[in-house]
Amino acid sequence: MKQIIGAKIVTPKGVLENKVLVFGERFSQIADAPLPDYETIDRSGKYILPGFIDVHLHGYGGADVSDGTDEALRVISEGILKNGVTAYLPTTMTISYEGIEKAFDCARRARNAQKTDKNVFLSQADIIGVHAEGPFISMGKKGAQNGDYIRKPDADFILKHKDIISMITIAPEMDEDFKVIKKVASETGIVLSMGHTEADYETGVKAIEAGMTHATHFFNAMPSMSHRAPGCTTAALFSDKVSCELICDGIHVNKAWFEPMYRIKGRKLNLITDTLRACGLPNGTYESGGQMFELKGKECHIAGTNTIAGSVLKLNEAIRNLRDCGVPFHEAVNCASLYPAETLGISDVRGSIAPDLLADFSVCDYDMNVYEVYKRGETVAF
Fold it and tell me: Which of 28, 128, 241, 297 has a CA-to-CA distance to 342 between 20 and 30 Å?
């Protein structure tokens, strides 16, 4: 067993000072004083945060999930771990079935390697499953997705890959009588997410009743809200059944919405990055899902247009941005750890610093710079 002294511990209910974090492979306890005969680690002046969970991430460091290669997933999994992300859903784009299935196969292999090879496990963020963002989306709200590959919802395709799909984005108006949504909801634990959609309010309400419980990059690629045409956006915002993703970079969503979104959604708010391969790279032109996009500063656009295409936001930065807009520090952290774990139904295993949960955590300063990462109680070598 090990124990960390001197640090402030961010728990689901608040930040604890002058306490001792005791852990092995799992968290043991938060003690009032150091215990005898344990390996003691002094991290005075730092914060201990639970491992972050990103449910929507396309790429990092020059690699993209839709590349469909083992090397791409390795680069992404190693890169995001340095930002404190200890688990995530590699997210595919709207590409061909063949391309999507190739990416799924890579995720299966990577997930298996992380379970069986300790060196791989300690160098990579865990792959929980995948998030399939499309191809079952609306042409009118495709955003940076490739319209050539948009399809009607296909239950057989989804069920065929239910072993690896943890979340899937669907435009509910594309699903006649919500047949696919109802079938997948009744036969799997896949999180059905409303996104890239033109659905009106009534359709949104019916989709939620049919089994949709999540909203993809909220506000983006969805109808604008108005008093006469509230849209499915409003249905998702005010439903206690729906968790909402939020890209807290001040580009996709104005910062004025950050704190109100937390106030409205609470435990149903999930911070995401929606990063593309350009994250961590210099300005330039890059490719994602068959589309070319340009990175200028912190903004990504489809080449030659003003259409936003993903982000280069890091999840530790998103936490800082949410906190700095008035959300309590521990709650901003929960939005990137505990609450995504609850969305995925895995909060009994990971997502917070609590007894018996996996000892996945990071050592950060108040500005959210990550100094160390631990997985199952072992230090990760950067």
Answer: 28
